[in-house]
Amino acid sequence: MSSIRTTTDEQEPTVTCSELLEQIQDEEEELDRERALYGNCDVDTCTYSQGYVRRQALFACMTCNSNGQVTGICAACAYHCHANHEVNELYTKRCFRCDCGNSKLIHQPCKLYPNKDPENSLNKYNDNFRGLYCSCKRPYPDKEAATNDDEMRQCIICEDWFHGQHLGVPLPMEDNQMDIICQACVSKYSFLANYDDSHSAIQTALIDNSVAVASNNQPCLLSNNTDNNSEVHTIFLRDGWRKRLCRCAQCCKLYDEFNLTPIFDDEDAIEEYQKQALAKSENLDADKIIADSLENLGYVRKLEVLSGIHEFKKSLGDFLREKANSDGLLTAEDVAKFFENLNEKRKEQQKTMFMPPDTCKF
């Protein structure tokens, strides 16, 4: 819903204070999402030298992939090498090595790490790299769809994204806090159906696994499950599901055979990636950037900048409260007037304020 309206008299764009605050909140939420996704990224260094990275933000260049090749590139290469191309964000993928500049993209040399092997043989690609998602094999956002409001969810095994309406099962009330394994992956690895939170076997795992972990001879938590007639469908996993997995010798061997062991490691969880990204991105917080910038200023200039920031915050708060208590509408003229008054106030303060020279040592 648009937060901009026009008045009937002058047709001047207006916005209410509540709508402005809602916009600010939405922008802050989007910033948090980007920090969680890109906080681990170095936009000036290709990740190729790190090998097959456990988890990283990836992109697919649709301009370069138009020749039939399927490739993935890191954030730095998307920024430096494919800046003027059509680039799709793929969120994060596990165990992937940047393809930029290799034999698949030989017509697009990598500017950051030019000497790469011809191919990355261990990379795994799905239809996401072609710009297609879900069992419906449609792009996202889908320009032909009536709406794109159906939030997509990523399978933790194949890492494809699915529309909620195409999962084949009703969504649990708390589905946003749950991981999913799509129907195709449950069909491929049938033992995973035992861990569906709607399945009785998971209750056994919840109770017995805490005891089994303390034992060197762990019994199989799934050995008592005899229900093999349940229909294969998408399953949902609650927080901490990796800790509830059976860790008996037989099941661990099965995980290795199917190359699922890395996925079942706590370090693979997207929450762990986001935690590390947010911690790293703290260096980009506005307050810290200001503090780092002030370190290079003299004592007098530092006080002047801090005073200016404080005055701006106070004036803006007073301005918004005044508008909220009156008609609650903001116009372009109101905003221009606010900055005009702020500049006038600043000039008056400078006339009466004593500013010692930069060489002052007090």
Automatic annotation (TrEMBL):
Zinc finger extent (UBR-type): 44-115
Database matches in InterPro entries: UBR7 (IPR040204), UBR7-like_UBR-box (IPR047506), Znf_FYVE_PHD (IPR011011), Znf_RING/FYVE/PHD (IPR013083), Znf_UBR (IPR003126)
Molecular function (Gene Ontology), one example: zinc ion binding
Pfam family, one: zf-UBR
The keyword Cell division appears for this protein: no
Keyword annotations of the record: Metal-binding, Zinc, Zinc-finger
GO cellular component, one term: cytoplasm
UBR-type domain sequence ranges: 44-115
Identification of the protein by name: UBR-type domain-containing protein
The organism of origin for this protein: Rotaria socialis
